[in-house]
């Protein structure tokens, strides 16, 4: 997956997230989906940072991988 494809995927997730937030009262399924979106966004932002880091280090960005939700959700900020 190229960087521009990762960014397009992120934009799609953000649009869905914004749509859900704009609704106001959410169903249980929508709340669950919102949580899933947040995790997936964290995963893809991490993936993009990995790709950029590999590139800056002179390595192949295609070696970057999408990490598990558990991994990216437990990073310390």
Ordered list of secondary-structure elements with their pairings:
Layout: H1 3-23, H2 28-56, H3 69-73
Helix pairs in contact: 1-2
How would you describe what is shown here?
The structure is a single chain. The protein is mainly alpha-helical. It has one domain (3-70). The chain has three helices and no strands. The chain has helices spanning 3-23, 28-56, 69-73. Helix 1 runs antiparallel to helix 2. The chain starts with a helix and ends with a helix. The model has no long low-confidence stretch (mean pLDDT 95).
Give the structure's gist in a few sentences.
By secondary structure, the chain is an all-alpha fold. It has helices at residues 3-23, 28-56, 69-73. It contains three helices and no strands.
Features:
3 helices; 77 residues; single chain; mainly alpha; elongated; 0% strand
Secondary structure tally: strands: 0
Helix fraction by DSSP (H/I, runs of at least 4) = over 70%
Query: So what's the overall shape?
Result: elongated
Low-pLDDT parts are: none
Determine the mean pLDDT. 95
**Secondary-structure-derived class:** mainly alpha
Radius of gyration, in Å, reads 14 Å
How far do the termini sit from each other?
26 Å
Approximately what portion of the residues adopt beta-strand conformation? under 5%
Overall domain count: 1
Number of helices: 3
Biggest sheet record: none
Instruction: Return the string of H and E elements.
Output: HHH
């Amino acid at each position: 997956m190229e960087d521009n494809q990762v960014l397009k995927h992120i934009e799609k997730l953000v649009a869905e997230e914004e749509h859900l937030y704009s609704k106001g009262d959410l169903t249980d399924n929508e709340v669950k989906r919102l949580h899933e979106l947040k995790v997936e966004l964290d995963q893809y932002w991490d993936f993009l940072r990995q790709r950029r880091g590999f590139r800056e280090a002179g390595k192949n960005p295609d070696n970057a991988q999408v990490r598990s939700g558990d991994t990216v959700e437990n990073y310390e900020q």
